[in-house]
Amino acid sequence: MAATFLPFSSSQFIIFSILSLSSLLLITGDDHGFARTLDMKTLGLKEEKLSHFRIFWHDILTGTSPSAIQVVPPVANSSTAFGLMRMIDNPLTQGPELSSKLIGRAQGFYASASQQDIGLLMAMNFAFLEGKYNGSTITVLGRNTVFSQVREMPVIGGTGAFRFARGYVQVRTNKFDQNSGDATVEYDCYVLHY
Does the record bear Cytoplasm in its keywords (predicted)? Predict the structure, then answer.
């Protein structure tokens, strides 16, 4: 009988076989060590609900305490202010007047991301300061074509009462001052959350 040649000893072969088998079990099994399926109740999540918020976003570029400041200027000779970026900490109020009840802050940035039209990339958290949503946030990330009558952007998440949030916002300009750039914008927020 001819001898069989193995590139490793029998003990190495056994170790190799055990490691290969355990790797196969990790790939095909449910317990990956770093991930597992959870029951939503263990996180305190109850039935999912749909909430609607109507809030007013105030972008204030002028005065002694602006809520939006330019951090990157636009490129030269751009008709759309392409490249411009502003950091924001905008008041969110219950009504269209800045003097109406403050219910939160819109914190994040927007940037002019289109060379063909005025199209902003908006990335912001609505940090609520009032009622049962005090301390909770929703995150909005999307494209805002500011001169369209109605715009829509996705809600991509949240914190606190809005963990696992998803939804969308419909945006309408309420007031815009072409001289100062100050604007009041109505946000209708439709948010699925637990």
Answer: no
H and E: helices and strands count for the chain? 1, 9
Q: Which long-range contacts (CB under 8 A, 24 or more apart) does 120-126 make?
A: 120/144, 120/145, 120/146, 122/153, 124/88, 126/55, 126/92, 126/187, 126/189
Residues 6+ apart with CB under 8 A from 92: 55, 56, 57, 58, 102, 103, 104, 105, 106, 126, 128, 187
CA distances (Å), 10 to each of 5, 21, 191, in order?
Answer: 11, 16, 61
Q: What is the pLDDT at residue 41?
A: 77
- 46-100 pLDDT per residue, tens: 889 999 999 999 999 999 999 999 999 999 999 999 999 999 999 999 999 999 9
Q: Answer whether 190's CB lies under 8 Å from 158's CB.
A: no
Region for residue 34 given its phi and psi (left: phi exceeds 0; alpha: psi -120 to 50; beta: otherwise): alpha
pLDDT-derived band at 42, boundaries 50, 70, 90:
confident
In angstroms, rounded to a whole number, what is the distance separating the alpha carbons of residues 118 and 138?
25
One-letter amino acid for residue 179 of the chain = N
Alpha-helix runs per DSSP H in 7-92: 10-28
Pairing of strands 137-145, 151-159: antiparallel
